[in-house]
Design brief:
By secondary structure, the protein is mainly α. It has 18 helices and 2 strands. A hairpin with a 2-residue loop joins strand 1 and strand 2. Helix 2 crosses helix 4 and helix 11 crosses helix 12. It is globular and about 60 Å long.
Length: 481
Amino acid sequence: MASEQWFAAVPGLALTSQTVLLLLVYLAGLLLLAVLFGAFAARVGLPRVMGELLVGVVLGPSVLGLLPSGATEWLPQHRPSQLAALEAVGQVGILLLVALVAAELDLVVLRRHGRASIVVAALGVLLPFTLGVGSSFLLPGSFRGSGTSAPTFALFLGTALSVSAIPVIAKILCDMGLHRCRSGQMIIVAAVFSDVVGWLLLSVLTAATAGGSAVTGILAALGALLGTIAVALTFGRWAVPRILRSSGRSSEQRTAVIVILVLACAAATQALHLEAVLGAFLCGALVADAELPAAALDGLRTVVLSVLAPLFFALAGLRVDLTLLGRPSVLVAGVGVLAVAVGGKVLGAYLGGRLARLSHPESLVLGIGLNARGVIEIIIATIGVNLHILTDASYTVIVLVAITTSLMTPPLLRPVISRLDGSGDLGRAAEAVASSGRRRAVRTRPAGRPGVRSAAWTGTRRRRVRGACPGGRPRPGGAVR
């Protein structure tokens, strides 16, 4: 092969036919299993990401890893070169997924409920962050990566516990019929603000760990962060819409331009020692501000949600080692971290709602709704492993927190909403929940004000909610994982 000869001439590279064969087999096999497990999860009413993660859990040390070593040599985690190539594909996928989530936010809704939602998001981030930092000093030393200081691990754990998952939350609200009421809209907006704060904290922490002294690293990170935001709000808001308009009407060409912009912005923030996902998120927000036609993201959405994202989550599951929960110290620590995550988020958002002069029931709905961590916390945990801040034990605990909080949100929301009276906005929310209990999917076109686009994955096949979530004009929606 010509490529074989070319790479053979480059020191450190050896692209043999066997390497290519194994890579293609792993890609096809992981994607096939992710699709099958994701479809099964959707069939039983769970987010597809849960099934995709389960692929890695089964292939990893939790299940097949228990077999004798000779029987598992064919798995990708035992072949470093193929695993590195697979993870590179997964990293591109997660950058595009984060950008897609940001691009499908409706900035009109952010402005409409901005003030109250900022208060809710602020306390919903501050309390779990503070509790996470404090509780980190009670965890076993085996939870910290080698060479990681206790303060660095504490800040990272606080950041991981403070985020919310916009995609998972949007799907839950649409499935329960809460996407058109004020509470549902405020949950979405507060989740956006909390995730923005989470990415900013993560970027500062990443840059600080790359610096010299702690003070110098933090100051340099803050300077780079403020400079990045300033460039995005000035030059970015001016340049991105013009670049997208000049890309022509071809959907293929526009998709390519969006991907180029996302990767370029991610590379820029990575070069500044800020996390690459921050650049992807900011680029997605600039694409949303450009007000493209509703179908402009369809091509990107299909590739990311059908191919790249499932591969990433299947690979993320490979690191989950459930056998570690057999150790009493890890199990107790995991239960404690879960309690801190749930209690901090629910109580923090509830107090924020009360400070914003919302009623007790509505504040409680906000607290429970923001509790789902989902894919965002999994992404952050993956970054922690790559930075050697987390170990296998702490990574497993954080991923289990993400899964558990996502699964527990609907059953906790339903009884709270059902106890509300039949008047006002919350009364309509209670009626929506009661109605959603009699059907498996949202099949109507919600009419109303613009909002965040979404698609519900329910039943045996994909059913797209063609409208805004919360309550918007009819438009094609983005799949929510």
